[in-house]
Every structure is written in structure tokens, then in C-alpha cells.
Amino acid sequence: MSKNRRLAIRSGLTIGDLAARTGLAVSAIRYYEAEGLVHPWRNAGGQRRFERADIRRLSFVMVAQKFGFTIARIREVMQGLPDQRTPTAADWRRISTGFRADLDQQIAALEQMRDKLDGCIGCGCLSMKACTLYNESDQAQHYGAGPRYLMGDPAPEAGAD
Q: Which of these, 71, 96, 65, 66, lies nearest to 81 by C-alpha position?
């Protein structure tokens, strides 16, 4: 076989190789494939093959999920990565910049919740009017599910109807 012919043959990583390199289960990699986060190709025998760049892509997915990002948001962000080549530092920087705003919002929300909980933990609920967990007559239901006042939605003014 000539040198040029050998260079033209793509080998890629098997799904097992990718699982070993990322620490993900094969089933998780298949799930991420179904979600459009990685795009393997098939060799002549019909087996999935992955690019080495998919190690980085899946590592990014794992980290983003640990930060609480949904698969839909991760997919949206990763659509900015090139499919036909390994992402460059500039490609990853562009994605990082987009995620930074989301992370800053999460940090601010966590700090706000921490500060409100500090007051809540020590109060013993002596003042139901000031409690961010108290939701008299379920007044906050129009904001959505969960502890709405603690999450930052405005509580009704004291004495308001």
C-alpha cells in the first residue's frame, strides 16, 4: 500500500476507546450522539468512529452538566464548533465567553440565595412577614413553582391586599 493511500484511510477512535478516554459509559456516549453533541462517522465495516476532538467535546459536556447546564443549552453552544476540523483555542474561547454570562448569573443567584438563607436559618421564623419562604395563601403561584420569594421574585408589600 502506498504512503498516500495509507494517509487517506481514516481510523478514528472506537466508542470503547472514547469511553476509556472520557470515563463515560458507552451508553452515555450513544445518548450524547443521539442528542447531537458528537457526530461519529462509520468505517467500511459500519462501526462508529470518533475524532480525537470528541474527547474534548465530551469533556466539555461533562463539565457543563456539572455546572447545571441543560443538554439543550450545551447543544446550542456547541453548534458554534466546527464539525469538519478540530476546534481551535479561538473556537473554545468564543464558547467560553458565551458561557461566562450564564455562569455569572448563576453565581449571582447562588450568592443571593446564600445570603437570604443565612438570615433564614437563624431566624426561627419569628417574623413570618419578612420570611422569604413564607408564601401566605400561595400568593406567589403566578411566578411559577418553587420558593419564589427566596429565588428573587418580589414579595407583596406588608399590609397590601
A: 96
Confidence of residue 84 (pLDDT cuts 50, 70, 90): low
pTM of structure: 0.65
Q: Number of folded domains in the chain?
A: 1
The three cell numbers locating residue 93: 474561547
* Three cell numbers written together for 114: 446564600
Inside any domain, residue 154: no
Taking alpha carbons only, the member of 1, 50, 2 closest to residue 26 is 50
Residue-range definition of the domain harbouring residue 52: 3-87
Q: In whole angstroms, give the CA distance from residue 157 to residue 147.
A: 17
**Confidence band of 95 (pLDDT split at 50, 70, 90):** confident
CB 96 within 8 A of CB 111: no
* CB-count exposure of residue 64 (10 Å: 0-12, 13-18, 19+): buried
CATH, residue 51:
1.10.1660.10
| 116 is a domain residue | no
In a domain, 112, yes or no: no
